[in-house]
Amino acid sequence: MRAVVTGATGFLGGALTRRLHSIGWYVTALGRNPLRLNELDDAGIRPLRLDITRKGELTDAFKEQEIVFHCAALPSPWGNYEKFYQANVIGTRNVVQACLENNVKRLVYVSTPSIYFDYNSRLDVKEADPLPEPISAYAATKLLAEEEVDKGFGKGLAVVSIRPRALFGEGDTVIFPRLLSRLKSGRLPILGDGENIVDLTYIQNVVDALLLCAESPSNTLGRKYNISNGEPVKIWELVNHICDELNLPRPKRKVSYRTANAAAAAIEFVYSLIPYSPEPPLTRLTVSMLAHSTTLDISAAKAELGYRPKVSVEEGVERFLKWWKEIHH
User: Fold this and answer.
1) How far apart are CA 234 and CA 254, in angstroms?
2) Is residue 183 part of a domain?
3) Is the pTM value of this prediction over 0.90?
4) Nearest CA to 296 among 121, 138, 43, 179?
5) CA distance to 28, 207, 290, 301, per residue, from 19 (Å)
């Protein structure tokens, strides 16, 4: 099989690219990080450095390709809206158009469950549940990107989308590293009552889901599927376990959600006054994610894609910790 992976220099795109290569697919890896592209090149994978906001480059890259996995996105919780719009909406529009122009057999799109988020606990969220007003530029533009994918489907493009929740594992650059940075600083209190549960998804389980989407039956086309490990965990118990394994002090001090949210709102306001400001040290999104419960209903993915998480959260965390210790020894 001939496939293109956008965002191949990112966490998910990189894991998918290496898996496809290992099972004998001919993969073209698109990305903007030259160091990561060189690593893929060294592994025998064809690298292509380009910007998905430039449609002409994509049209050439997709020639004679059978499947496109669109993993590229700007996923930050903070930043300039126009940058999110260009990366997530215009980039996706270009990917869809390039697929249509090249008669690509199937597009597999990586969306996000961030579109479900509304600063409250939400349990067993289904794909068809009513959506709240997006709470970030990322969520807003990923929702618009889904609309671009839907338009492509309406024009005859075979497409399947997934909404994977809280990816972690070896190579993680976002969730656990950010958490560990705060734990090392000793400035992370327990937010809320410490009893909230969350869904996480081990990286290779998401790769499994993407492979299932690439070859799923026709009744899955045009559909969007929640993906997680399907085993909610108490986030603060997990934090304590990670602290113990890495010899970090456990968070002891408790701060109510209301207090932490008010502090984060004040910090965000100050940072919003600074042109091109970096991400604030505390955001309302981070506070809510650490204080509230969020779980997804993955029954549709199980029934229609045949998705089964093969690696448990516990095993996935141990794999991550082993990798983390090796690169930080």
Assistant:
1) 16
2) no
3) yes
4) 121
5) 13, 8, 31, 20
Mean pLDDT of the chain: 93
E runs forming strands in 100-203: 106-110, 122-125, 159-164, 167-168, 190-191, 197-198, 201-202
Question: How many other C-beta atoms are found inside a 10 Å radius of the C-beta of residue 258?
Answer: 11
Region of 190 (left: φ > 0; alpha: ψ -120 to 50; beta: rest) is: beta
Could you tell me which residues are beta bridge partners of residue 224?
161
Domain encompassing residue 103: 2-165+203-228+294-310
Q: Read off the pLDDT of each residue in 156-179 and give the average, rounded to a whole number.
A: 93
Identify whether 225 is a catalytic site residue: no
In the structure encoding, which two tokens stand for residue 129, read together?
Answer: 């549940």
Catalytic residue selected from 85, 109, 116, 138: 138
293-310 pLDDT per residue, tens: 999 999 999 999 999 999
65, 19 Cβ separation under 8 angstroms: no
Q: 112 lies in a domain?
A: yes
Instruction: Give the model's pLDDT for residue 240.
Output: 94
The whole-angstrom distance between residue 198's C-alpha and the CA centroid of its chain comes to 15
Angle, CA 185 vertex, CA 179 and CA 188 arms, to 5° = 55
The DSSP bridge partners found for residue 190 are 254
Domain count, the chain: 1
Coil, strand, or helix at residue 198?
Answer: strand
Cα–Cα dist 213/29, whole Å: 19
